Amino acid sequence: MLLHVSHKVSSGFTLIEMLTSIAVFSLLMILLFNLTNTISHAWLSGQERINNFSKARAIVNIVSGDIHRGIFRADLPNFRYGCTYANGVFVNGTYTNAFYTRLPGSSTSASTTRNVTLVGYGINLTATNIYLRRANLTIPWTGSGTKIPFQGPLDSQLTDAYAQAQEVAGGILDFEMLFIHEDGTSSKTYVYDSANRVISIGIGLVIVDDSTIKLLGQKNQISSLHDLFTAAITGSQSMKYEWETKVLTSNFYSNPSYPRQLANGLKTFEFYVSCSPF
Q1: CA-CA distance, 81 to 224, in Å (whole number)?
Q2: Where is average pLDDT lowest: 57-66, 152-161, 186-195?
Q3: Which of 126, 154, 195, 208 could be disulfide-bonded to 171 (CB atoms 3.0-4.6 Å)?
Q4: Is residue 142 part of a domain?
Q5: What is the predicted pLDDT for the residue at 89?
Q6: Strand, helix or coil at 143?
Q7: 127 near 217, Cβ under 8 Å?
Q8: How many CA atoms are closer than 13 Å to the CA of 95, on its beta-carbon side?
Q9: Containing H/E element for 39?
Q10: How far is Cα of residue 56 from the mean position of the Cα atoms in its chain?
Q11: Secondary structure, 3-state, 249-271
């Protein structure tokens, strides 16, 4: 009698196959993680750029509107350089420009009285952020033969109690103006010269996105960075050029004390607005 013995071959993975599968799976996970990280970084960088461009566009629209309505003539002072905004008022400092414009305003003066509006821009620095502030105040003007000086320190005029002061945008590390004359020369301060008039005004901005300015505030670096960018401007060249050649170097971004995202979160802008001096 013959007995038939069947041998069942068990199916499964060998150790080598298991290790190979684990290695392939790990490689795929690493590739997927890197891809996700790259996409996330690109998205965050895009958001930072959008944030900065939105701030720049809003500021330029406001400032250019004021400049287009500006009154640039010999019997009115313009662009007093040497005031900054602090504690609710404009006071003596370093970074503010103030000038007269044709902005509409109300007045109970006689019909012969013309009204001009004093507009001032200043930096408001706090421990956690740095803002660009704007204030305006309507002032009576009796005519072209009457000079209206800045009434002493601007804190006596552009206070929150009397002027419409507001924060234009946060994360503004520096706000500068550059004055271009008919002969092509430029200057950091405004000087009325009928023989060589100012025909264009440059608006320079150093802007940091919201998340980066938060990190700078945590490290108490906002004030020092503000001073650094301000000191880089001489007025003899493009503001953006001076910032990028004197400040924004490889050594600047490799400074280990700065947040790593500062290289992507900081942008400089420069725009020029034509003006019509008398």
Answers
A1: 20
A2: 152-161
A3: 208
A4: yes
A5: 46
A6: coil
A7: yes
A8: 28
A9: helix 15-68
A10: 6
A11: CHHHHCCCCCCCCHHHHEEEEEE
Find the range with the poorest average confidence among 20-29, 144-153, 177-186. Answer: 144-153
Residues 6+ apart with CB under 8 A from 254: none
Query: DSSP H helical segments within the chain, as ranges?
Result: 15-68, 210-218, 222-231, 239-246, 250-253, 262-265
Distance between CA atoms of 186 and 242, rounded to whole angstroms?
13
| 165 within domain boundaries | yes
Would you state the structure tokens that stand for residue 154, as one six-digit string?
């601007």
Rounded to whole angstroms, the Cα distance separating 121 from 99 reads: 9
Q: Give Cα 49 distance to the centre of its chain.
A: 12
Position 224 pLDDT exceeds 70: yes
Give me 75's structure tokens.
Answer: 């019997």
CB 179 within 8 A of CB 201: yes
Distance CA 232, CA 82 (A): 16
Give, to the nearest 10 degrees, the angle between helix 222-231 and helix 210-218. 110
pLDDT at 151 over 50: no
Give residue 20's pLDDT band: very low, low, confident or very high (50, 70, 90): confident
What residues are paired with 130 via a beta bridge? 125
Q: How many domains does the chain have?
A: 1
- 20 domain residue, yes or no: no
* Cβ neighbours of residue 43 closer than 8 Å, sequence gap 6 or more: none
Q: Quick check: 61 pLDDT over 60?
A: yes
Contact between 252 and 181 under an 8 Å Cβ cutoff? The reply is no
**Distances, alpha carbon 4 to alpha carbons 10, 11, 216, in Å:** 19, 22, 83
pLDDT of residue 195: 86
> Bigger pLDDT: 9 or 191?
191
Query: Does 199 reside within a domain?
Result: yes
